[in-house]
Design goal:
Chain lengths: 159, 278
C-alpha cells in the first residue's frame, strides 16, 4: 500500500515544520502562521482517508518537540481541528477559495485558542493582539497554500 | 448519508482517544519529566532540519568572514593580540589573588572555590515558541552537556539548559517569563531574585521592601543560592526603581548584561564543585 508518491505529503509536512522554525525578527514572530496546521488542513480535505487524526497527532508531537512546548499541546490542538475538518470538509470543498479561507480562519483560531489555553493553564498568559495575528495571516495565505499543494498533488497523481 | 454518519462516529472515538492521549502526555511532561527521553529521541530526528534552517545564517557569517579584506584581518589580529596581552597580565594577578583566597579560606576552615570548566557552543539560528525565550545550541550529551548547567556569554549569564539531545540542547533564557535567577548586589551583598518577563532587555526584582538600599546602576551577580547557577557571574544592572508606597514594596527593573538577543557564541559551565555556602 505504500507508494512513493505519498511521500509528497510527508515532505510537505516537514517543509511546514521547517517554516515553523525559520528565524524571524522579534517583532513579527507572533504573526507567523501555523504552517503545519495549514498543510494538514489541506491534505485532510484532499485525501481524508490518508491524512486523518493520527497524522494530526504525530504532526502535533513533532511541532511540540521542535518548538519546545509541552508534548501534546499542539497535538491536541491539531487533532481537534482536523476532527472538525473531517466533519465539514465535504461542504467546504465546493466553496470558493475566499469562503474557504474564512473557514480556515475559524480552524486556525480554534487551533490558537487550544494552544493559548494550555499556556494559560501553565500560568503563561498570552498578549491578545498576538493571539489573533497568526490565524489572520494564515487565512490570508490559505488560497496560495491551497493552490500550491493542489498543484503538487496533481503532479504526484494523488487523489 | 448513513455511511457518512457511521464514518464520523468512528472518527469521533478516535478523536476523543487521541485527545485524551494528548492531555495525558502534557500532564506527564509537565509534572514528571519522564518524557525527556522521548522528546530527546524525537529531537534527534529533527536535528538535520535545525541545521538546515541554521545554514543560511551561518553561511552568511562565513561568507562575510571570507570576504574581509587582508588589511582588516591584520588590524583585527593585532588588536586581539594586544587584548590578549592585557588579559594575560590581569590573569597573572588573578592567579595570585586566587591562591591568597584559597589560603584565607583554609584558615577560616571553608572549602576552596574551584574554577569551573566550560564548553564552548554556538547558537543555532532556529526559532522556537514565540511566547517563550528559548534558544537552541549546537552541543549535546555527546559533548558533556547536562540539564541544569548554566549558560553564559562573554558579558553575563544567559540562562540554563533544560533539554539535551545528542547533538543539540535547548536553553531557557533568564528573560523567559518562567525563569527566576537568584542574584546578589555587589555593592551591599543584598540578595534577591530576578524574574524574567518575556522581554530580552528587562528583568524584574519583585517584592523588595521599600527600605532596601538600591541605587540606579547597581550591579547584580549570581548569588549561587539554589545550586543552579555558580556564584559571582554578572547578571544585570539596575535601570529603574518603581515604588509602591501603598504596600511598602519596590519593584526594581534591571537590564541583563548578557546580549540575550544577539550573542552567537556561548559558554556552558560544567561545575566541578557544588558552590560553597557564603
Amino acid at each position: 500500500m505504500f507508494k512513493l508518491r505519498y511521500s509528497v505529503i510527508y515532505l510537505s509536512l516537514i517543509a511546514g515544520i521547517i517554516l515553523m522554525i525559520l528565524p524571524l525578527p522579534e517583532s513579527v514572530k507572533t504573526y507567523r502562521p501555523d504552517w503545519v496546521a495549514l498543510i494538514l488542513i489541506y491534505w485532510s480535505m484532499a485525501l481524508p482517508k490518508r491524512v486523518g487524526l493520527l497524522a494530526a497527532f504525530i504532526a502535533g508531537i513533532l511541532v511540540d518537540v521542535s518548538q519546545g512546548t509541552l508534548l501534546g499541546q499542539h497535538a491536541l490542538a491539531l487533532v481537534i481541528i482536523i476532527f472538525i475538518n473531517q466533519n465539514f470538509y465535504q461542504r467546504i470543498r465546493v466553496l470558493s477559495l475566499v469562503q474557504q479561507a474564512l473557514y480556515v480562519f475559524l480552524l486556525l483560531f480554534i487551533n490558537q485558542i487550544v494552544t493559548v489555553w494550555v499556556e494559560g493553564f501553565l500560568g503563561r498568559p498570552t498578549p491578545f493582539h498576538a493571539f489573533l495575528g497568526a490565524p489572520v495571516i494564515g487565512m490570508l495565505i490559505w488560497p496560495w497554500v491551497f493552490v500550491t499543494l493542489r498543484d503538487i498533488r496533481r503532479k504526484a497523481h494523488l487523489s | 448519508m448513513n455511511q457518512l454518519r457511521s464514518q464520523s462516529r468512528g472518527t469521533t472515538v478516535q478523536a476523543v482517544l487521541l485527545a485524551i492521549v494528548s492531555i495525558v502526555l502534557m500532564f506527564v511532561d509537565q509534572r514528571f519529566n519522564h518524557l525527556e527521553v522521548v522528546r530527546s529521541n524525537i529531537s534527534v530526528a529533527l536535528t538535520p532540519l535545525r541545521y538546515l534552517v541554521s545554514l543560511p545564517a551561518h553561511t552568511g557569517n562565513w561568507a562575510g568572514e571570507w570576504f574581509t579584506s587582508f588589511r582588516d584581518l591584520v588590524n583585527e589580529n593585532s588588536n586581539l593580540k594586544a587584548d590578549s596581552r592585557i588579559l594575560n597580565a590581569r590573569l597573572q594577578k588573578m592567579q595570585v589573588l586566587q591562591a591568597e583566597n584559597t589560603r584565607l579560606r583554609n584558615l577560616l576552615g571553608s572549602s576552596a572555590k574551584v574554577a569551573d570548566e566550560v564548553i564552548v557552543a554556538e547558537l543555532l539560528s532556529v526559532d522556537q515558541n514565540p511566547y517563550r525565550q528559548l534558544i537552541e545550541i549546537n552541543k549535546g550529551t555527546l559533548d558533556g552537556v547536562e540539564i541544569g548547567q548554566a549558560v553564559i556569554d562573554a558579558y553575563g549569564v544567559m540562562g540554563q539548559v533544560i533539554h539535551v539531545n545528542q547533538h543539540t540542547s535547548t536553553t531557557i533564557l533568564i528573560s523567559d517569563p518562567e525563569h527566576a535567577i537568584p542574584v546578589q548586589f555587589i555593592r551591599n551583598g543584598m540578595r534577591s531574585v530576578a524574574f524574567g518577563n518575556g522581554s530580552s532587555d528587562q528583568l524584574e526584582l519583585r517584592y523588595l521592601p521599600a527600605t532596601a538600599d538600591i541605587r540606579i546602576n547597581d550591579e547584580l551577580v549570581t548569588s549561587g543560592l539554589g545550586g543552579r547557577f555558580p556564584a559571582d557571574y554578572p547578571v544585570a544592572t539596575v535601570v529603574a526603581i518603581n515604588e509602591d508606597l501603598i504596600h511598602g514594596f519596590v519593584s526594581v527593573l534591571v537590564k541583563p548584561q548578557a546580549r540575550l538577543d544577539s550573542s552567537r557564541e556561548v559558554l556552558i559551565i560544567k561545575p566541578r564543585n557544588s558552590p560553597s555556602p557564603r
